[in-house]
Amino acid sequence: MTNGSGEYIIAFSTAESVRRRSDADVNEVRELANEAISPLFQAVAEATEEAIYNTLLQAEDLSGHRDSVKALPIDEVKRLLDSP
To answer: How does pLDDT run across 2-11, given as a tens digit for each residue?
Structure first.
C-alpha cells in the first residue's frame, strides 16, 4: 500500500485534535500531504497484521453452550511455517 497505488484504505482516528465539536460552526483540521501518507499506510498494515497474529496465536480453547472450539495449535503452525 502506497500513495497512488490504487488501493482503498480507511483509517479512523480517536485523536482529540480531529474530533468534531458540536459547539463550533467551523472545524479546522490539519491534513497530511498526499506524499506523506505512505508511511501511515505501512503503519496501519503492520498494526493490523500484528493484531491478527496476536488474535490467532494467543487464543485459548473455548466452550459454549452449543459447542467447543480448540485454539490454534501453535506448535503445528510453527512446524508448517518452518517446512520448505
So the answer is: 777 777 767 7
> CA 74 from chain center: how many Å?
22
Q: Which residue, among 39, 57, 35, 37, has the nearest Cα to 47 in the 3D structure?
A: 39
H helix count then E strand count, the chain: 2, 2
DSSP state letter for 72: P
Q: Name the nearest CA neighbour of 45 among 75, 5, 76, 74.
A: 5
* Integer Cα distance of 46 and 55 in angstroms: 14
Non-local CB neighbours of 41 within 8 Å, separated by 6+ positions: 1, 2, 3, 9
